[in-house]
Specification:
It is built from five helices and no strands. The protein has 101 residues and is mainly α. Helix 4 packs across helix 5. Bound molecules: heme C.
Amino acid sequence: MKKVLIAAAAAALMVPAAAMAERDGATVYNTKCGVCHASGAANAPKMGDAAAWGPRAAQGMEALMATAKKGKGAMPPYGLCMDCTDTELQAGIQYMLDNSK
Ligand code: HEC
């Protein structure tokens, strides 16, 4: 337990701008990505849609991260999560992949 707290404190110190512990994938998804990815708005691959996510998952996380960062079509850079760290952005992607198999 103590170790966890120390690790969390260290992480917070390394990212002074965020000043908070990093958000997990579910939080990032629910507060940011879900706006489009829950409903499939603007043709976003819908969470839970294995047919939409399967070929994307096959590209690998590195490729998905590269696309998510710079945006693609109606997908805005960083999925509009401008204050997301790379770790948080990746957690959001992983959360959608995990729930779309
Ligand atoms: C404004 C709507 C919108 C928001 C908000 C949004 N997305 Fe998207 N996203 C899209 C659309 C539309 C596509 C499909 C792009 C295409 O294939 O042309 C997409 C595609 C993607 C893809 C697949 C990229 C690829 O290579 O095919 C990933 C990964 C992704 N979004 C992650 C995220 C994450 C993570 C968030 C939240 C941080 C997010 N998106 C928020 C609209 C959105």
